[in-house]
Amino acid sequence: MIEILYITGRGGSLEKGLAPELNKIAHSFDGIAVDVQFLKQPPLTQVEQIQSKIIENPDRIVVANSYGAYLTLQALVDLKVTPNKVLLLSPVLGIAQAKDRMYMSRPPLTGRLKEAFESSSLAKPEIFKVLMGNQDELYNQEQFALIDDYFGEGSAIILNDETHMLSHEAVKAFIGEYVLGDA
To answer: What is the pTM assigned to this prediction?
Structure first.
């Protein structure tokens, strides 16, 4: 029985994109849309809402995308109930700067996340996987090495020739392997 909690990317919806695909394969599906209404709340309130959803049923597979993945990573800080399986797609991992143009991402609470890594206060799910393209403008090799070091070697999976918007084939293979157990 597959139970999924899905956290969308910024501006995401539970009615389109990856959400309906996850809903099709899940026996039980729930999610948080990181939409305009959600983003009007203070960042820590956003994180607390994700924490509450995780705590409701830590046996669900948590799948999160982009900025929603960043908030989900933040939700693991000092979390008293550890989810079994967390899968992050193209996560924002902190401050990032595009190499080829004038673009910088500076999400809130980066200091909190840095401190959590240093103090080992992030919950460690039984299975924790991150999928990101090496052409993603937010890809930072140092941040990815930190993920691999903290959650275990092989936690961070980098795909060649993929951008922030991962191909449907890459996402389907990832979901197949870690949600459906197709290996």
So the answer is: 0.94
